[in-house]
Amino acid sequence: MKRNKNLKNDLLVRTLIGEATERTPVWMMRQAGRYLPEYIKLREKYSFFERCQNPELACEITLQPVDIIGVDAAILFSDILVVPQAMGMEVQLIEKQGPLLPQPIKTQQDLKRIQVPDVNDTLHYVFDAIKLIKQELNGRVPLIGFAGAPWTLLCYMVQGKGSKTFDEAKGFCYQNPDLAHTLLQMITDTTISYLKGQIAAGADLVQIFDSWGGLLGKKDFETFSLQYIRQIVAAVKEEAPTIIFAKGAWSSLGEMAATGAHGLGIDWCIEPQMARQLTATASSSSGESWKGALQGNFDPAKLLSPIPVIQKEVKEMLQAFGPGRHIANLGHGILPNVPVDHAKAFVDTVKEYSPRLTVSV
Prior knowledge:
By secondary structure, this protein is an alpha/beta fold. It contains 16 helices and 9 strands.
C-alpha cells in the first residue's frame, strides 16, 4: 500500500493501519456542507451539481471544515449519486427535498438505459477536484474519498427518490432477484473503477457508505449488500486504507471486519464494547484476527446540546472506546441546524482529551 509521507497530520491513516498515535483522530461525516455559513453562501449562488462538478468549488467546500473546525481529515465534497448519474440515469438534487431520479429502474428494459461507464470520461471532474484539493491541502491532513455501497445506490435507482423504508427497492430485489443482482454488479464494477480513480488522483483513504444497509435483515444484508462491498474492499484495500460505514447493520460487524477493511463505522445504537466483541472474533481469509479501527459514534443530534454537555458526552464516548483503534466521528452526518461552535466543541474536546499515548493493538 502506498503511503503519503508528506502528510503533516497522519493520525487518521496511522490509526487505520494499526500504528501508535498521540491521540484519537477526529472528523465528521457531512462536515463539508450544510451547517457552515460559508457553504450556505455558495449554495445560494450555485446548484448542487454545479458545486460538485466544478473542481474549484468542490475544493473550496472540501477545505472549509479543515480551516474552520480543525478536523484531522478532509472528505471530498461530492455525492454518492454521481455514480448512477455516470451510469446514464438522470439525477436531480432538490434543496430541502432530496434526490429525485425521474426514470427509475423497474424492468429488464430499463436496465438497457444504463451501463458501466468509463469513469475517466464520466467522472473526470471528481478526479480533477481531488488533484486540486491535494494541492491546496499541501499535506496538512489526509483526504478521504468515498462512494455509496451498491445496495444503497440500488435503493435510489429503483425507488427513484428518498424513503425511510425503501419498500419498492426491497420488493424489486425479492420479486426480481436476477435483475437486482445484475444491477448490483454493474454498480459494483463502476464503484471499483471510481474508487481506484480517486486513489490514483490522490485520495489517501476511502469510505464506502451503506446508508440503508440497516433496512436489511442479516441474511439479506449478505445477499444484497455485503457480498458486493466485499468485492469493492478486496479491489482497493491494498491501494489505500478502506472504511465501511453501514448504518444500522451492526449485527454484521464481524462479517464486515472479515472483508479486511481497515475501519468500520458504527452509529449510536450500538455500544463500543459490543462492537469490539463482534469484531474481535472476525478473521480474514488468512486466519488473522481483525486489527482495524472502529469509527463513530456520537449522535449528531447531541451536538444541539449546550457545549458543556457536548464536552462531557464526548469524553464519555472516548472512554467507552478506550485508547487506540478508534476514530472519533458522528454516528451519521452532521445536522444542518448544528451551531458551528458546537461542532468545533466536539472536535476540540477529542483533540484535547488524551494526554497519554494512544496505541493501536
